[in-house]
Amino acid sequence: MPKKLSARGLVAKALNKKPPAAHLATKAESSPADKSVPIASSTARVAANRRNAQRSKGPRTPEGKARSSRNATKHGLRSQTPPLAQTELETYLAALASFTATFHPSNPFETRLVQRLAQIDSRLQRAHQLDSALFHRAHDQALDWASQFPHH
After folding, report:
1. CA dist., res. 96 & res. 119, Å (int)
2. What is the pLDDT of residue 23?
């Protein structure tokens, strides 16, 4: 949490002036563990950052934009978009074909229900795979830890 400014510091900030010297930390005063102390950037560094930001244009192709839109995805179990990986897409399509053949949707509403059922089924399969992988990983780590101790 950033350090609170005094009334003088708030007024100086509102006027786009430098606050009193007591409110800025230098690099020597700031420790890596204390993230709450702001560090004054030099005007040269600020200018360099602005120039670099102008050159950065992000992804330009539709594929790059689609890929970067998924940067924060961890497991995708609650996502509103269809599965992303090829194997997940294949699981979804197989479930969709199976449920369509079983339920024979006859109108758009029923078709949407079958699609939703296929999405839920593929997510449940993915959740089971994640759960199983996490269990096996924890089990292997426990065995590795236990192997450090001599058997009696």
Report:
1. 8
2. 47
Cβ–Cβ contacts within 10 Å for residue 151, how many? 5
Residues 92 and 119 sit within 8 Å (Cβ to Cβ): yes
Count of other CB atoms within 10 angstroms of residue 87: 10
The rounded distance, in Å, linking the Cα atoms of 83 and 80 is 9
Instruction: Specify whether the CB–CB gap between 58 and 66 falls below 8 A.
Output: no
Distance of alpha carbon 139 from alpha carbon 59, whole angstroms: 40
- At 49, is the secondary structure helix, strand, or coil? helix
- 64-75 pLDDT, tens digit per residue, is 877 777 676 665
How many residues are recorded in the chain? 152
Question: Residue 23: which residues within 8 A CB-CB, separation 6 or more?
Answer: 3, 5, 6, 9
* Mean pLDDT over the full length of the chain: 76
Residue with tokens 């007591």: 22
This prediction has a pTM of: 0.43
